[in-house]
Design a protein that fits this description.
With 357 residues, this protein is an alpha/beta fold. It has 13 helices and 11 strands. Bound molecules: nicotinamide-adenine-dinucleotide. The site of nicotinamide-adenine-dinucleotide has 24 residues, from helix 5 and helix 6.
Length: 357
């Protein structure tokens, strides 16, 4: 791999490599952009096919964090760490402490948190050697489960879309088809049901659909058919790629707004939605509530402030939709353009971000 070529392709930034033979740590920390503040982003701890795959994963994920944080108007840039899971036996706490010391060496320019393969308990170990970590359980003074905040933000985003597309100021009787009722999908259903929306749901796990059907009187639909339901809002809350060449022509809704990351299988599917007259709430704009919540930990967690800031997802989605209409652009492009404007107004590359306390 040509590292600088890869960095250039991902519009970087800095890349830090950490190797500690004593603990088995092999880690990559990607700081995509720190112009708005310390980079924030999770630490993955998974197997990689090879070192190149680990580097590319870090580059790609950190860049996405910059975009999400900037659009949510957080005082943070985007970062991501990956720890390559050793193939030999290793002592997990020792390795995590080694990673923590590496993070500490970045002196607050990167704040780490949990991600695939790491847990709030792992972050407690990291916390024993650095302050630059967040994402703790509530009983450890942390922000706890991010899903209810993500769901709150998605509900606010749906309200903004309903305002723009349907001229509605309430959700009473709004028909919402939710794909995936796991952590976020379930909380979203609770938010929507409380405001009188009518729910259709699908999940590949029968146990979770049963719970939502019983508690919230949602009607259960086959997973393969959920996107085809006639409804006001289709809310993908499962895996990425729900909006693709096959599903777009089958949608029977004026709005797509859900929590899943990477909803557009291809960028061109965003334009396909626009041409079909379907309003799409860009995924990283509408699902920022979890990040907004965990970022609150850095300055001392306050659930009310986290909630108030998450409510502002409404304004972000409204701004994107209105600009998309006036500029005749797909919403995902407008979201990216807004982020580029925010970043270019924030100074030059490597301007010193205020360190996290
Ligand atoms: P989760 O694993 O708890 O829930 C996902 C649900 O989708 C599961 O119940 C799963 O069975 C179901 N599912 C999987 N494939 C499906 C299919 N083909 N059809 C229907 N259902 C299917 O995950 P989550 O934390 O609720 O996250 C959901 C999505 O939101 C993910 O894309 C995640 O990246 C994104 N997201 C989550 C958060 C958060 O705070 N948890 C924040 C931002 C984005």
């Amino acid at each position: 791999m040509n590292v600088f070529e890869q960095m250039s392709a991902h519009d970087y930034g800095e890349l830090h490599f950490g190797l500690d033979e004593d603990t088995g740590l092999r880690s990559v920390v990607a700081l995509h952009d720190t112009r708005l503040g310390p980079a924030i982003g999770g630490c993955r701890f998974i197997r990689y096919e090879n070192d190149d795959a680990a580097v590319i994963d870090a580059l790609r994920l950190a860049r996405a964090m910059t975009y999400k944080a900037a659009l949510a108007r957080l005082p943070h840039g985007g970062g991501k760490a990956v720890i390559i899971e050793p193939s030999e036996p290793f002592d997990r706490p020792s390795l995590l402490r080694s990673f923590g010391r590496m993070v500490d060496g970045l002196a607050g320019r990167y704040v780490t948190t949990e991600d695939s393969g790491t847990s709030p308990q792992d972050m407690e170990v990291v916390r024993s050697v650095t302050d630059h970590v967040c994402g703790f359980a509530k009983d450890s003074g942390g922000s706890g489960d991010p899903s209810p905040f993500t769901a709150l933000g998605v509900r606010r985003g749906i309200e903004a879309c309903a305002k723009v597309k349907l001229g509605r100021s309430d959700l009473e009787g709004l028909r919402v088809a939710v794909q995936g009722v796991g952590n976020v999908g379930y909380n979203l259903c609770k938010e929507l049901a409380a405001l009188g929306a009518t729910l259709m749901i699908a999940d590949v796990r029968d146990s979770v659909t049963q719970r939502v059907a019983d508690e919230l009187r949602a009607s259960v639909v086959a997973s393969a058919a959920i996107h085809r339901q006639e409804c006001d809002v289709y809310a993908p809350c499962a895996l990425g790629g729900a909006i693709n060449d096959r599903t777009v022509p089958e949608l029977r809704c004026p709005i797509v707004a859900g929590a899943a990351n990477n909803q557009l299988a291809e960028d061109r599917n965003g334009e396909d939605l626009r041409k079909a007259g379907i309003l799409y709430a860009p995924d990283y704009a509408i699902n920022a509530g979890g990040l907004i919540n965990v970022a609150q930990e850095i300055k001392g967690y306050d659930a009310d402030k986290a909630r108030a800031r998450t409510e502002q997802v409404y304004d972000t989605i409204l701004e994107i939709c209105q600009r998309a209409e006036s500029e005749a652009l797909p919403t995902h492009e407008v979201a990216d353009n807004i982020v580029r404007e925010i970043l270019s107004n924030a100074g030059t590359r490597f301007s010193t971000a205020p360190p996290a306390p």
